[in-house]
From TrEMBL:
SUPFAM superfamilies: Bacterial exopeptidase dimerisation domain, Zn-dependent exopeptidases. This is Peptidase M20 domain-containing protein 2. Residues 170-259 form the Peptidase M20 dimerisation domain. Belongs to the peptidase M20A family. It comes from Desulfosporosinus nitroreducens. InterPro entries: Amidohydrolase, Bact_exopeptidase_dim_dom, Peptidase_M20, Peptidase_M20/M20A_hydrolases, Peptidase_M20_dimer, Xaa-Arg_dipeptidase. It holds the Pfam family Peptidase_M20.
């Protein structure tokens, strides 16, 4: 380990208790998406205390923030992503209290260097568990001129390279005409019949898609009483695929299926996206390799092969805007299951404290490499440029 990284390691040890207290307090006071007032304030105050300029309530979201620290000389701009929303009932069953604290801690570690050239950002991103605020942050230009973005996520293995599925959330409404189901059935147009036709068509469509494409839906509204022909029926669907281009193509087929189902009973159909669309996660391999080397600097050599998460993450949209990584690091024994109370408990245990320390050190090392190694930065940018041309 060279002298500057040894310095960062020592800074991490010095900050360890303070950063852990931030993580512990956020974990002990779980807040749902867009209501993370305590968490957002805790992270912002910690960063302000260490010399960061913090803009709160960015991109029209009260609990989003942007913290900035400029080095003594111009240089690249890197961003650490902070998450801090919790799950209903369970609390921090995904360890977002650890994510936010580690990102803030890594940024503060870098700020202590008198050799820092460039700018370090911490971007507070609310509501990852629900609507995915990173989508809004990308659309509002918060990542403009950022050279690299990174975060970590607690998990069951050390996985520097991940991918995820692109996602569209679609709501379909079938519009019919109500009538007495027995006395005047001929005057009605049964929206629920259209919906049933739609589901039959979807089941046929599923037989044509590859294993990488997932189509899952539920009926949320199908009528009011058995003796009234339903004039309205509503369904919500999640469509997922490994690639955005492939998902776009299958989305059009699903919509045509809905249109055909409506026409079969002379109903009408409308649709809209009821949640943000997520792009697939594109891990920047050059940046991930740097992260892996820095894990080695910390004595971590058990590295899992690249994995595809069967879910979707809003970090995918960030990875289409700037070079990005979203590595997983092992929490506890690695046997804890995310989105459970047990996972939330471990995130507040000494295992959680140890993971925060490791994560903020490795993130700081990786951030330093990007800021100080122009050859690495150009390699990261070349790889990203090839992605944008796909």
């Amino acid at each position: 380990m060279d002298a500057i990284k040894a310095f960062f390691r020592d800074q991490a040890l010095h900050l360890r208790k303070e950063v852990w207290e931030v993580a512990r307090q956020i974990g002990a006071r779980p807040e749902l998406g867009y209501k993370e007032y305590f968490a957002s304030n805790s992270l912002s105050s910690f960063l302000q205390k260490h010399g960061f300029i913090v803009d709160r309530g960015i991109a029209g979201m009260e609990t989003a923030f942007l913290a900035r620290f400029k080095g003594l000389r111009p240089g690249p701009r890197i961003a650490y992503l902070a998450e801090y929303d919790a799950l209903p009932v369970i609390g921090h069953g995904c360890g977002h209290n650890l994510i936010g604290a580690a990102s803030a801690g890594a940024a503060v570690i870098l700020s202590k260097s008198l050799e820092l050239a460039g700018e370090v950002l911490v971007i507070g991103a609310p509501a990852e568990e629900t609507s995915g605020a990173k989508v809004t942050l990308v659309e509002k230009g918060i990542f403009k001129d950022v050279d690299a973005a990174m975060m970590f996520h607690p998990g069951s293995q050390n996985v520097p390279v991940i991918s995820s599925l692109a996602l569209d959330a679609l709501e379909f409404t079938f519009h019919g005409r109500s009538a007495h189901a027995v006395a005047a059935s001929g005057f009605g147009i049964n929206a629920l019949d259209a919906m049933i036709n739609f589901f039959v068509g979807i089941n046929a469509l599923k037989k044509q898609v590859s294993q990488d494409v997932k189509i899952n839906g539920i009926i949320t509204e199908g009528g009011t009483a058995p003796n009234i022909i339903p004039e309205r029926a509503v369904a919500q669907f999640y469509l997922r695929a490994r690639k955005r281009k492939e998902l776009d193509e299958w989305r059009e087929q699903v919509i045509r299926c809905a249109e055909g189902a409506a026409s079969m009973v002379s109903a009408k159909m409308t649709w809209h996206k009821f949640e943000f669309s997520y792009d697939e996660m594109h891990t920047n391999l050059s940046l991930a390799e740097c992260f892996t080397r820095n894990l080695g600097e910390m004595g971590i050599h058990q590295i899992a092969s690249p994995q595809t998460a069967m879910g979707s993450v809003d970090m995918g949209n960030v990875s289409r805007a700037v070079p990005a990584i979203h590595p997983y690091l092992t929490l506890g024994t690695g046997t804890e299951i995310p989105h459970t109370r047990n996972f939330a408990q471990v995130s507040l245990s000494p295992d959680g404290e140890r993971l925060v320390l490791l994560a903020m050190q490795v993130l700081a090392f990786t951030g330093w490499d990007v800021l100080s190694n122009n050859k690495l930065l150009q390699q990261i940018k070349r790889e990203f440029l090839l992605l944008t041309k796909e």
